[in-house]
Amino acid sequence: MRVTVSRKAHFNAAHRLYRKDWSMEKNDLVFGKCNNPNYHGHNYELIVSVTGEIDQETGFVMDVKILSDLIKEHIENAFDHKNLNLDVPDFDNLNPTAENIAVVIWNKLRNYIKDSLDLEVVLYETPRNFVTYKGN
Q1: What is the per-residue pLDDT across 79-130, written as a single tens digit (0 to 9) for each?
Q2: Which residues bind Zn(2+) (predicted)?
Q3: Which member of 10, 53, 73, 81 is catalytic?
Q4: Would you say the C-alpha torsion 136, 76, 32, 18 has a positive or negative sign?
């Protein structure tokens, strides 16, 4: 009997979508206003879901308090009120698109969640734009 437990969190962060190796014109063409040299921000909504068998001893797939603490420590503390391009080393050489942010979050959390459990990250950049990452 596989069950999914989820935890919702949020963080506010600024970013700029651009490639250092492209001209300003090409960056503008591909990324539009998201290439603003002065950055722009989002109120990100994050849903982290863990799926697995219910532990017969505890009744949990995973203790949601532990999941909450992992998200707070490794994601919210690292990303909230930060400029992703300038303040978060994960994006030193990685364009902080919603897709890449979701993968970075998944990779950060995967290290702390048992291999027997499936992990899914859903990241809302806006109420209408979101990405989902479930691992490779």
Answers
A1: 999 999 999 999 999 999 999 999 999 999 999 999 999 999 999 999 999 9
A2: 15, 40, 42
A3: 81
A4: negative
Helices (H), 19-124: 24-31, 64-71, 77-79, 84-87, 98-110
36-72 tens-digit pLDDT: 999 999 999 999 999 999 999 999 999 999 999 999 9
Contact (CB, 8 A) for 121 and 133: yes
Summarize the annotated binding site as residue ranges.
15, 40, 42
Catalytic residue status for 81: yes
Total of domains in the chain: 1
Can you give the residue range of the structural domain that contains 126? 2-133
Catalytic residue among 10, 25, 34, 57: 34
CATH number at residue 34: 3.30.479.10
